[in-house]
Amino acid sequence: MDTAVPQNEPALPDRLAVWVLTPNGKRLGEALCRHGKQVHLFVSSRLAADTAFSRTSADAPETPGCDNQVKKDPVPLGNADSKIQVFHKLSSAVAERFHAYDCHVFFFATGIAVRILAPLLVSKLSDPAVVVVDDQGCHAVSLVSGHVGQANRYTRQIARLLGATPVITTATDVNGLPAIDLLAENLNLFIETPGTIKTINMAFVERRKIRLQDPLEILSPWISQDWIDNTNSDLPLVVCDWRHQKVSRETLVLRPRVLAVGIGCNRQTPFDLLADFFTTTLACAGISRHCVGVLATSDIKQDEPGLLALAGHLTLPIKFFDTRQLSSVKTIQTPSKMVEKHLGVPSVCEAAAILAAGNGTLILPKQKNRDVTLAVALQETGSMW
Fold first, then answer.
1. Closest CA to 191 of 123, 144, 131, 128
2. Angle formed by the axes of helices 151-162 and 23-33, to 10°?
3. For residues 103 and 13, what is the distance between their CA atoms, to the nearest angstrom?
4. How far is CA 98 from the centre of its chain?
5. How far apart are CA 47 and CA 30, in angstroms?
6. Which of 57, 77, 149, 190 could, after both became Cys, cross-link 255 (CB 3.0–4.6 A)?
7. Which is it for strands 16-20 and 103-107: parallel, antiparallel or unpaired?
8. Which neighbouring-strand residues pair with 256?
9. What DSSP string describes 60-106?
10. Strand-pair partners of 253
């Protein structure tokens, strides 16, 4: 059996956990581990005691009451980044590590997996992928997070590596239809109303059309116009835009990350003040904060604690521009003589926003309070960070 990864196939996830209970599962798990970059093989203590690699726990005293004690140093397997770890209680071990990995592969019965996972699942948008493989390696089943978590993709890859049959049960996949949540993930769109994903995907499964508001044409190139009918107000609606608008509760709202926010502030402006001004200003302007892809400011603010904390809180990159760069922007709407006097440039927030947006269009000119200035620019092409 050739288990080499085809050149055109996507790699296994960066963080992969493989769980085994039986000798056959161990054999298959070892084979899978050889193809991963950062793989951890979790082996039951009962199986470890009966195999050659039981040295991971041999001669090490158990800690009373500890279900997940890892004995001594993990032993390399397959490659330098693969390691064996011994667990004593499966449910506790999985629960402790569930969100530490991009994908979990269980080499045991689906029923066991379901009972273990039930209390751990939160959302299809955040739960890691879970793939279940039977003890003979005949079938690989995509169990959890098939689309956004990419379990369907990983299942096909794992099946190829092990010579198994992939089992995919999501209706859009098996019918060769679009899946709106997968499209959103691939296009880096924030899903603001995840509860309505099923409404749109069910429309596709039932061969019904949808309505689509996509002024930047980010989503529309990926959905055939045969699926779109904007003349029928009874059809389910998808909105892909940075602007807030009133829509029904059944509307799927997707937010493209196409905006750059430029910020200026006084020295030592507190994080709380910056965060409140950021949130309030965007909300009042009808701009979704989920469409912001980058923050930007002057390079003299590279050590500004409040700004750095804001970027970290929003999990956004922050770009710093020097005086020459800020002065090069010729489309400033509200220059400041005070800023020019102290910094040598007519603008910080507007110029930084425009630069960070790739010389984009200013959609919100400078807004300010006593300590903070803020402006927003839209990328010209509608592309995203």
1. 123
2. 100
3. 7
4. 16
5. 14
6. 190
7. parallel
8. 189
9. -PPPTT-TTPPPSSPPEESEEEEEEEEES-HHHHHHHHGGGSSEEEE
10. 239
The token duo for 39 is: 């793989």
How many Å is the maximal CA-CA distance in the chain?
78
The answer for residues whose C-beta is within 8 angstroms of residue 119's C-beta and 6 or more apart is: 95
At 160, the pLDDT band (50, 70, 90 cuts) reads very high
For 31-90, write each residue's pLDDT tens digit.
998 887 788 999 998 888 876 544 443 333 333 333 433 333 333 333 434 478 899 999
Contact present, 105 and 16 (Cβ < 8 Å): yes
Burial class of 95 by CB neighbour count within 10 A (0 to 12, 13 to 18, 19+): middle
Name the nearest CA neighbour of 78 among 136, 37, 108, 42: 37
| Length in residues, the chain | 385
Amino acid sitting at position 193: T
Q: Which amino acid is at 290?
A: H
CA–CA gap between residue 142 and residue 309 (Å, rounded): 39
In the block, residue with structure tokens 């989920």: 290
User: Rounded CA gap, 220 and 236, in Å?
Assistant: 15
Question: Model pTM?
Answer: 0.70
In 3D space, the residue among 303, 212, 229 whose CA is nearest the CA of residue 265 turns out to be 303
Q: What number is the average pLDDT over the span 286-294?
A: 97
Q: How many CB atoms lie within 10 A of CB 361?
A: 13
Q: What is the CA radius of gyration of the chain?
A: 26
Pairing status of strand 129-133 against strand 139-144: antiparallel
- Per-residue DSSP letter, 215: T
pLDDT mean across residues, the chain: 85
